[in-house]
Amino acid sequence: MPTVWVLGAGQLGAMLKQAAYPLALDVVPIEPDSEHLPDIADHDIVTVEREQWPDTAVTRHLSSQVGFMNADIFGKIADRFHQKTMLDTLGINTAPWRSVELDTKAEALHAELGPDVLLKRREGGYDGKGQYWLYEDQGDEVPSDWQGTGIAEKKIPFNEELSLVGARDKDGNKVFYPLTLNLHSNGILMASVAPLARVAHLQPMAESMLSKIMDSANYIGVMAMECFRVGEQLIVNELAPRVHNSGHWTQAGACVSQFEMHLRAVSGLPIKAPEVRGQSVMINLIGVERELSWMEVPSSQSYWYGKDVRPGRKLGHININHPQKKAVQLALSTLRKQLPDNYNDVFDWVDKELKRI
Ligand code: ADP
Ligand code: MG
């Protein structure tokens, strides 16, 4: 079997490594600033846990291998200008946008995109970082450090945020997980719920959108598509050419997790439509100190990434899964007592969504 090298050594690389054991694959995450150049064989695979990376000796080495998967996609997706251009070219619904050039004025952006405009850095943004709201009624100007470095988007008055995680193999076969409902707070994913019968009718539309994107790029592996639901329409917010936080629930709630699915696809092993079991809820652990009591929550898996605790930082997640919704609700009520008060809104949202199921 080939070794699968992962560009990036954060939690996604670690969870790919965890998923590799049943496949007897050796998965080796690599830090972009590592001093040591790994010895990569021609039949090895190189994949990524991030869509952009600093230019270092190691990242140059990894990305120049014959086994570097989806080499062409990162230029198209990592830069929002190219990603939005690709979506427009494919005729896929996305938030109306325009490029922020060196001479772009707020007035012109409002004339085209409305009173509330969201600036997003072309590169490097994540977890809501790299965003800036321009409000017409406050007379905001485009800050000088945004000129030539961003895109501007129309504010989408969405009903909710849904994401689709899918995978494509080298022969073009595709499989998908059910649409996942996501709650973001200040741009950071806080919780996901899946599956959800009330959005199942949107699944074919979402699958055909992501299929078109993956097929057009001849993509191999897992890709995630973040969407806004506006009425019965799906509007693509952004794409991630990798495993994705909104797919973490598949570790507990599907017969093949997104991590194993990605490894199967990139290493030429069979992929299959993942049967989903029971009800899943994922809670992200953001900026909180570790509590061992989380490990006692019934029907749960807890993941702690071993990173330094900082406000707003993703430090771990907890998957709750059970065939019966009532058991999931019970587990959530236990976990609610163990997380800080600022999580109350998150639990209220999940409770409300579970009641609607
Ligand atoms: P990131 O790379 O930080 O995830 P996103 O583009 O996904 O960047 O934006 C983060 C969050 O900001 C989204 O999940 C959504 O809640 C909000 N957001 C992004 N774009 C828009 C928009 N055009 N209108 C309204 N809200 C938006
Ligand atoms: Mg996002």
Structural account:
- Helix content is 27%, strand content 28%.
- The radius of gyration is 20 Å and the shape is globular.
- The protein has 357 residues and is α+β, with helices and mostly antiparallel strands.
- It has helices spanning 11-20, 57-63, 73-77, 80-90, 106-113, 203-216, 250-253, 258-266, 325-338, 344-356; strands at residues 3-7, 26-30, 45-48, 97-100, 116-121, 131-135, 150-154, 160-168, 174-176, 180-185, 188-194, 221-230, 233-240, 279-286, 300-304, 314-322.
- Strands 8, 9, 10, 11, 12, 13, 14, 15 and 16 form a nine-stranded antiparallel beta sheet that branches. A four-stranded antiparallel beta sheet has the order 4-7-5-6, sandwiched between helices. Strands 2-1-3 form a three-stranded parallel beta sheet, sandwiched between helices.
- The mean pLDDT is 97.
- The protein contains ten helices and 16 strands.
- The protein has three domains: 3-68, Rossmann fold; 96-154, ATP-grasp fold, A domain (Dna Ligase, domain 1), CATH 3.30.1490; 160-356, ATP-grasp fold, B domain (D-amino Acid Aminotransferase, Chain A, domain 1, 2-Layer Sandwich).
- Bound molecules: adenosine-5'-diphosphate (ADP) and magnesium ion.
- The site of adenosine-5'-diphosphate (ADP) has 16 residues, from strand 5 and strand 13.
Question: What fraction of the residues are assigned to beta strands by DSSP?
Answer: 25-35%
CATH class of the largest domain: Alpha Beta
Please give the radius of gyration in angstroms.
Answer: 20 Å
Q: What name does the CATH topology of the largest domain carry?
A: D-amino Acid Aminotransferase, Chain A, domain 1
Arithmetic mean of pLDDT: 97
Overall tally of domains = 3
Helix content: 25-40%
Uncertain ranges: none
- How would you sum up the global shape? globular
Q: What is the number of helical segments per DSSP (H or I, 4+ residues)?
A: 10
Largest sheet: 9 strands, antiparallel
CATH architecture of the largest domain: 2-Layer Sandwich
Order of helices and strands: EHEEHHHEHEEEEEEEHEEHHEEEHH
Structural class: alpha+beta
Function: Catalyzes the ATP-dependent conversion of 5-aminoimidazole ribonucleotide (AIR) and HCO(3)(-) to N5-carboxyaminoimidazole ribonucleotide (N5-CAIR).
Keywords: ATP-binding, Ligase, Nucleotide-binding, Purine biosynthesis
EC number: 6.3.4.18
Pathway: Purine metabolism; IMP biosynthesis via de novo pathway; 5-amino-1-(5-phospho-D-ribosyl)imidazole-4-carboxylate from 5-amino-1-(5-phospho-D-ribosyl)imidazole (N5-CAIR route): step 1/2
